Amino acid sequence: MLVVEALLRAWRVGDPKWRLRLRLVPLAAPLLLVPLFFLLAPWRASAWFATSRALFAGERWNLLRVGPAGAGDLALLLAAGLGAALFLRDALPPLIDRLREGPDDEAAAWLPPAALQELVERHARRLSIPPPAVRVVRSRWPVFFAEGRRQPELVLSPAGLEALDARELDAAVAHELVHVRHGDPAWGYALIAARAANFFNPALQWAARAVVDEIERRADHGVVEAGLGGADALASAIVKLFDRSHPAPGSGTALDRVARRVRQVGIERRRERLVSVLPAAPLAFGWLRLALASGGLAALLYFVV
What is the pTM of this model? Predict the structure, then answer.
């Protein structure tokens, strides 16, 4: 993760597509390389490899005792706890948001106006994709996202539409359709599955969160690049939807305030990135650089047992 972050800065990668590809390297490594090494290089589990070849061997650290436990086992236990905390930090808020929704008969009877359907179809034509269906959900909170892979849908709530003016709505719809164009809802399902299966791996949890951030960056950039909405309008829509769906907790717990602040920091960074967006220069020798980054990380992981 740190290696890829350093490469992104050293190479000054601004193209969202290449940023996403490079971010996927540390995410794919533990999912693909570790099982591959286990099958094709069984000698990595031998004592000879651990003592004479490995750069980092957990068994060596167990020689250092911390009370009744070895330092290596203790480090693994702490890493697993950190990984689980990172996973729950991102998995619990959406679940809590879902549980706090209550019945809203007015929202249930609301239907999307023809103007919204026309807006969706217009943006879909400019992006050369079939227009997704528009589905209204029964929620008193602002809802605005795309889901589905084979039959994508734009999911929203009346509160989400009421929070935005015409320019913000135009940019927000375009943003979600860019997600549909790139198949991002399917990426979301895959990331959730990978994070749940590797909840104990803090490096993978950080890598997955970075990938989500790059997916959002790509969609933001796609809206501005295609001229589907102004950067300032999209930034304003993102902030409004966040503020309306995550009101400041008045009598909530300290954990609620911290969770909201963490989300708010991410929204603020995204807004700043949008309003200062610059044309992304193409990455020279992009595939070669990607291969070098992947090969370097694979070689490093080979010598970690």
Answer: 0.85
